[in-house]
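User: I'm writing a short methods note and want a consistent example. For DUF3108 domain-containing protein, I'll paste the sequence; you return only the structure tokens, no commentary, since I'll be parsing the reply automatically.
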Amino acid sequence: MFASAAVRSLLVLGGMAFVAAAQPAAGQTIDASYGARLAGVSVGQGRISGAVTASSYRVSISGRYSLLGFGGTFEAGANGAVAGGSRVVPESYRTTGSGRRTRTTMVTFQGGNAVDARIEPALDAEEKEGRVPLDDSHRRDVVDPLSGLVAQVLRASLGDDPCAGLARVFSGITRFDVSLAPAVSKPDGERTCQATYRPIAGHRADGSVAAAGRAITVAYPVARRAGEARLPSRIEVPLAVGTLVIERVL
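Assistant:
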């Protein structure tokens, strides 16, 4: 449970906005490192990097986690077009995670739809058991998690308030929505949002999905570094075993 929650949390911005609000700035860079803590104990770290121009984008993430004798690594990458200066259109997404086993997921998009998804090795019978079925409707009008991250980065960088949006995200294994709204509290020096994760299909139907329906806190700095996209300074994800806190360290 922790591994999927940690990776999903580092990618949580992928669910926060499908369409950017304005013309993106050419040459905007994405580069940041994060550390994850649970109950004050370091449990992982990751790095996000990439670039966005007026017509295209590329982004990647990599990291590792370790908790209670369980650990692994993850990496993912995505690229696509920025259509009309305002809409993210994914082309390809790939992610590999290692832990109890190593698995790679690859998704190809065309026109906003996921037209091909491959999982290597495929889910076995035990892993498929109890999952909400995916159908063709779950692959239409979607983005992958990292392309959604780019869309939200554009929104956060171009506007004063990044706390708005809803995305339909397809990871290759699951389909979920993440909605974003302003948080009630507004600490000085931050723009604080609440993101809500809602599983749609591909997840287990037994209610064990971490963070489902819970308010995830996402904090942005008021100002950003010149030429750099505005990235979150902190993400807090409530889990059954405590709150997973992911903070920017560089």
